[in-house]
Structure formats: C-alpha cells, structure tokens
Amino acid sequence: MAKMVMEKFDGKIPMTIDELIQLPGVGRKTANVVTSVVDKQPNMAVDTHVFRVSKRIGLVPITTKTPFAVEKELVKNFPTELIHKAHHWLILHGRYICVARNPKCEQCGIRPACRYFRTVISPAL
Ligand code: SF4
C-alpha cells in the first residue's frame, strides 16, 4: 500500500474514493471513513452498526440488502453538510443504545421517530 502511495500518488494519500480503493487493503468503507473524517466529504461509511441501525430506525427500507445500497440511500436523504457527522452519530447510537440483540429503547431519545419502536415495541402508541 505504501509503495503504491509513493509510486502512483506522489507520496500523498489520495482523497477520492476511486483513488483510495485502488490501494491494497482499502475498501469502500475505509475510503469513506478517510474522506469523511480527514476531508469532511459527504461520504457515508456503512459498518455493521450503521447497516443495522439505519434499517431498524427506518432511515432506509428494511429490505435494503447491502451496505452499498444503505450508503446510497443515506447519502440521498441526509443533508449533505451533515453526512460526515451522521456517520459517527449512527455508529455511536448503534454501539451504545441501539445495540444488536436488545436495543435499549427505554433510554433512547428517538423512540417517536423509530420504525422499530412504533411497529414492534409499542405499536399501540
Ligand atoms: S427506539 Fe429502540 S430500536 Fe429504535 S432507535 Fe431507539 S434503541 Fe433503537
């Protein structure tokens, strides 16, 4: 990877998705993280938390099959200037509140907006 950075990119880490994914060991998720964190580009890295939480809350259709499809849907619907932050919001929410097995709905501030809460946990509300 370092060799390619030196030889192909003049010793500088490239800042586009298309260039970054040419580097060995760098996939789309990493490229999205690098460009959104370092350069505040409106790119959304979809890890396991973002994938689960986005579908559970209802930010993307529950039938969305792949991380790339989730990424496209989130990027389409979030305000552009918030996308680089929204990635962290979703990860932290999934890590500490909307956890995989038993989401902590009683502690969650977005219950009224959550598809899962409205349809599964408390459908009568
Ligand atoms: S209400 Fe529950 S399921 Fe919905 S986002 Fe909050 S923790 Fe997750």
Outline the structure in words:
With 125 residues, this protein is mainly α. It contains 7 helices and no strands. Helix 4 (48-57) crosses helix 5 and helix 4 (48-57) crosses helix 6 (83-96). Iron/sulfur cluster binds next to helix 4 and helix 7.
Q: How large is the share of residues in beta strands?
A: under 5%
Number of strands: 0
The major beta sheet can be summarized as:
none
Give helix % range: 40-55%
What is the terminal separation in angstroms?
Answer: 53 Å
The whole-number mean of residue pLDDT values reads 95
Low-confidence segments, ≥5 residues, pLDDT <50? none
SSE inventory with pairings:
Layout: H1 2-8, H2 17-20, H3 28-39, H4 48-57, H5 67-77, H6 83-96, H7 115-121
Helix pairs in contact: 4-5, 4-6
The structure holds iron/sulfur cluster (SF4).
Task: Provide a quick synopsis of the model.
Helices cover 52% and strands 0% of the residues. By secondary structure, it is mainly α. Helix 4 (48-57) packs across helix 5 (67-77).
Key descriptive features of the protein:
single chain; 125 residues; mainly alpha; Endonuclease Iii, domain 2; binds iron/sulfur cluster
